[in-house]
Specification:
8-stranded parallel beta barrel; 10 helices; single chain; about 250 residues
């Protein structure tokens, strides 16, 4: 069985790491370059950098900050926010990103997924999906969760896979920042119906939540932010706990 991955997430706004609850009420969580280096040294498997206001502000991801982070880490590094073209991806890869994450732009122009996969390979393309339950149905949201759509989470995820994306980063907006656990029922449905890796995001509050994301949610990786940023959970301790629970991880 492939090792499960633990992925700290740096949500970036105005050059700083921030974290909120349900995508709002953001508070400062530190310098992204310093945090990235800490996580790389602590044994994180990968790192995700999301410029969360880039799409809303209609600007490109902060390439210079990506470069600074890449200089400090020796683990795979995914970058997202404001990416809408082959040129955008080119710039980020040249500045040290290993993968890119696209979200709103993919929904607005699904052919972008095909184009990026054809140019850079599926292993390089992550599609992020932010969704919340509305009247019992998971609906995709855009622009940092601010714009609801009628798009069904599971139908869109299947299309994303069919178009060649290498993995999906699924964030439950209902669970984001609540520390009540991941959306394991939705995660399991995604993981068992698709053949590409699913990264769980939204809701991590304790070590058991990570265990559940892998055992109940069948996720391939679990992403979290505040529990790492504010030192509520250490990555090494988390991985030891996961291994004790029979979950394969790299120590």
């Amino acid at each position: 069985m492939l090792a499960k991955r633990i992925i700290p997430c740096l949500d970036i706004k105005n050059g700083r790491t921030v974290k909120g609850i349900n995508f709002v009420d953001l508070r400062d969580a530190g310098d992204p370059v310093e945090l990235a280096e800490i996580y790389s040294n602590e044994g994180a498997d990968e790192l995700v950098f999301l410029d969360i206001s880039a799409t809303e502000q209609r600007r490109k991801t902060l390439a210079h900050l990506v470069y600074q982070v890449a200089e400090k880490v020796n683990i795979p590094f995914t970058v997202g926010g404001g990416i809408s073209s082959i040129e955008d991806v080119d710039i980020l890869l040249q500045n040290g990103a290993d993968k890119v994450s696209i979200n709103s732009a993919a929904v607005k122009n699904p052919d972008l997924i095909n184009d990026l996969v054809a140019k850079f390979g599926s292993q390089c393309i992550v599609v992020a999906i932010d969704a919340k339950q509305i009247n019992g149905h998971w609906k995709v949201h855009l622009v940092g969760g601010k714009v609801p759509t009628e798009l069904d989470l599971f139908e869109w995820a299947k299309e994303v896979e069919d178009r060649g994306a290498g993995e999906i980063l699924f964030t439950s907006m209902d669970h984001d920042g609540t520390k009540d656990g991941f959306a394991n029922t939705a995660l399991k449905k995604l993981s068992t119906s698709l053949n590409i890796p699913i990264i769980a995001s939204g809701g991590a509050g304790n070590k058991q939540h990570f265990v559940d994301s892998f055992t109940k949610g069948k996720a391939d990786a679990a992403l979290a932010a505040s529990v790492f940023h504010f030192k509520e959970i250490g990555i090494r301790e988390l991985k030891k706990e996961l291994r004790q629970c029979g979950i394969p991880v790299r120590l």
